[in-house]
Design a protein that fits this description.
Elements lengths: L3 H12 L3 H8 L3 H8 L9 H14 L4 H13 L31 H37 L21 E5 L9 E3 L5 E3 L7 E7 L3 E7 L2 E8 L4 E6 L2 E6 L5 E5 L2 E4 L8 E6 L2 E6 L4 E7 L3
Antiparallel strand pairs: 1-7, 2-3, 4-7, 4-9, 5-6, 5-8, 8-11, 9-10, 11-12, 12-13
Length: 295
């Protein structure tokens, strides 16, 4: 009986497709496609992604996934499951107990402030009366002699800036988030053309993680991303992604798989532009300089 990878490879070659064409059709990177064809499933991050990748590959070469399902499950069963939160040698964070502070009596402050404010109010009123009484009398005489109504200037309305365009949608598999891609000789992948005209992000969770996403200065999504869920974000100029579990979120930026952005259980912030990205830790320090994508 032929293996899963052998059947997919023969079907691809029979249709005359190259591995790069399958990459362009499914947005699965070439490294994972080669691992599927050679049945080297340990090079794929999780059983969930292996099943998803094989299903998308089979659709492109007209093979019914149900025919491959038994062999796929056999291989997936031998794969190492991702560590759950608390596993993998990560120690829980211990927080020092809060020390109670002695309560101080500040009840005298309010009456003292009221008395002081009352004295200052009377003093200010008297000083204002002594200063402005002659001016008010003079202004009354001038106003009675004038018959022309006052002219009020109406300020011009401020120009309305165009709203940034971005969309966020949730999908169940990468095949539903396809955009045209192009593989370059240096191995990088760009969205649409060599210089991307927008920002396209795919955020895939391998563990349960909190996620906050904004695009072009506007909030796009805040919530919990469960394992096997994928969020897709399309922005115009800049996107900001903040995650509470940097090791449990796999990110694809304009068609290029950049993987995770830090250790599991750590908070990280990533700033994306049309040409690159930079990773920051919780205190705002830049851990990884801006990475240039394409060009």
């Amino acid at each position: 009986m032929q293996s899963v990878g052998t059947r997919l490879k023969e079907a691809r070659e029979k249709k005359g497709f190259s591995l790069e064409e399958i990459n362009a059709r499914t947005r699965i990177n070439s490294r994972n496609l080669a691992a599927i064809e050679s049945d080297e499933v340990r090079n794929i991050s999780s059983p969930f992604f292996y099943r998803s990748f094989v299903r998308q590959y089979a659709e492109q070469v007209d093979i019914d996934f149900q025919v491959l399902a038994p062999a796929v499950e056999m291989l997936a069963g031998n794969m190492r499951q991702p560590d759950l939160p608390g596993q993998g040698g990560y120690l829980p964070v211990r927080v020092a107990p809060i020390q109670a502070r002695p309560k101080q009596d500040f009840s005298w402050i309010v009456p003292a402030a009221i008395f002081l404010g009352f004295v200052m109010l009377i003093s200010s009123a008297y000083a204002a009366w002594r200063h402005y009484a002659p001016l008010v009398h003079h202004a009354t005489l001038v106003s009675s002699a004038s018959t022309a109504p006052p002219v009020r200037e109406i300020p011009a309305p401020a120009p309305k800036l165009p709203e940034p365009k971005f969309t966020v949608r949730e999908v169940k598999s990468l095949s539903q988030a396809k955009v045209p891609v192009e593989a370059k000789p240096d191995g990088s992948i760009h969205s649409g053309s060599t210089h991307a005209e927008s920002i396209h992000l795919e955020l895939a969770a391998t563990e349960r993680t909190w996620l906050s996403v904004s695009a072009d200065g506007k909030p796009a999504y805040t919530g919990i991303l469960e394992p096997a869920q994928i969020k897709v974000l399309d922005g115009q100029e800049i996107a900001k992604v903040r995650t509470g579990n940097a090791g449990g979120t796999n990110i694809t930026f304009n068609g290029k798989d950049i993987g995770t952005i830090g250790p599991r259980g750590k908070t990280r912030t990533v700033i994306f532009t049309k040409t690159g990205y930079s990773v920051q830790q919780a205190d705002g320090a830049t851990l990884q300089p801006a990475n240039h994508i394409g060009g």
